[in-house]
C-alpha cells in the first residue's frame, strides 16, 4: 500500500461504520461499496485509535455490541456482532438508525446509493476472491487456470474501477491478518 497517497477527503460523512479495527473482515464489503460509489463515511474504530487523550473508536464498536444492551437511546435493537452502520438523523423522529450485519447494511445502502446498488454483488464476490487469494495463495493460483474469466477479466477489472483502485492503494484499507481471511499455510497446497 502506498503511504504517500493522501487520505480520501471526508466531508460531513453521513454514515458511520462500526467494525473491528485493523482487519478487513465483514466490514470490508461495506467499505468497498462506499469507496466504489465515492460516498463519504467514517470508519469509526480505524479512524479513532486509542490515544492518551481518551479517543477510542473501538469503544464505540464494543458499546453497540455489549451483551447487556437492550438497545440504544434511539430505539434501535442491540447489535449482535459487528459490522454495524449508524446513520445519524435517518429515523423518522430524527434519531440515528443503527443497522447491523453485512447483508442488511448492503440491502439498506443499495436503494439509497445508486452506484452501490449496481456494484454490490460484484464487490462482494471480488472481496471473497481477494480474501481467498490471501488465505490460500497456492491453491488459488492453481484454480485460476480453471476459471480464466474470473482471473483475467473480472478480478483485475474490479481492481481498476474508479474509487476501488485508489482505496486499494491507500493506507485506509486494512491489511489481511487474523480476520475472516488469514493465511492458512497448513491448509494450502504444498
Describe this protein's structure.
This protein has 190 residues and is α+β, with helices and mostly antiparallel strands. It is built from 8 helices and 4 strands. Strands 2-1-3-4 form a 4-stranded mixed β-sheet, sandwiched between helices. Helix 1 (27-37) packs across helix 5, helix 4 (102-112) runs antiparallel to helix 5 and helix 5 packs across helix 6 (137-144). It is globular. The two termini are 28 Å apart. The model is unreliable at 1-10 (pLDDT under 50). Residues 14-117 form the GST N-terminal domain. InterPro entries: Glutathione_S-Trfase_N (IPR004045), Thioredoxin-like_sf (IPR036249). This is GST N-terminal domain-containing protein.
Summarize, please.
The protein has about 190 residues and is α+β, with helices and mostly antiparallel strands. The chain is built from 8 helices and 4 strands, in the order βαβααββααααα.
CATH hierarchy, class: Mainly Alpha
CATH topology title: Glutathione S-transferase Yfyf (Class Pi), Chain A, domain 2
Number of helices: 8
- The percent of residues in helical segments reads 40-55%
User: How would a crystallographer describe the biggest sheet?
Assistant: 4 strands, mixed
Give the strand line-up of the largest sheet.
2-1-3-4
Instruction: Compute the separation of the termini in Å.
Output: 28 Å
Large-scale geometry: globular
Number of strands: 4
Amino acid at each position: 500500500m502506498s503511504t504517500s497517497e493522501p487520505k480520501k477527503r471526508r466531508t460531513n460523512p453521513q454514515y458511520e461504520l462500526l467494525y473491528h479495527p485493523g482487519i478487513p473482515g465483514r466490514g470490508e464489503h461495506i467499505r468497498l461499496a462506499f469507496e466504489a460509489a465515492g460516498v463519504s463515511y467514517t470508519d469509526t474504530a480505524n479512524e479513532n485509535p486509542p490515544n492518551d487523550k481518551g479517543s477510542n473508536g473501538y469503544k464505540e464498536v464494543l458499546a453497540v455490541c455489549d451483551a447487556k444492551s437492550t438497545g440504544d437511546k434511539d430505539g434501535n435493537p442491540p447489535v449482535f456482532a459487528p459490522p454495524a452502520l449508524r446513520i445519524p438523523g435517518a429515523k423518522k423522529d430524527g434519531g440515528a438508525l443503527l443497522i447491523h450485519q453485512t447483508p442488511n447494511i448492503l440491502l439498506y445502502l443499495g436503494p439509497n446509493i445508486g452506484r452501490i446498488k449496481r456494484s454490490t454483488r460484484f464487490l462482494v464476490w471480488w472481496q471473497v476472491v481477494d480474501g481467498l487469494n490471501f488465505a490460500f495463495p497456492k491453491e488459488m493460483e492453481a484454480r485460476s487456470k480453471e476459471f480464466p474469466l474470473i482471473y483475467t477479466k473480472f478480478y483485475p477489472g474490479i481492481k481498476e474501477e474508479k474509487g476501488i483502485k485508489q482505496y486499494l492503494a491507500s493506507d485506509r484499507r486494512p491489511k489481511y491478518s487474523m480476520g475472516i481471511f488469514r493465511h492458512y499455510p497448513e491448509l494450502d497446497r504444498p
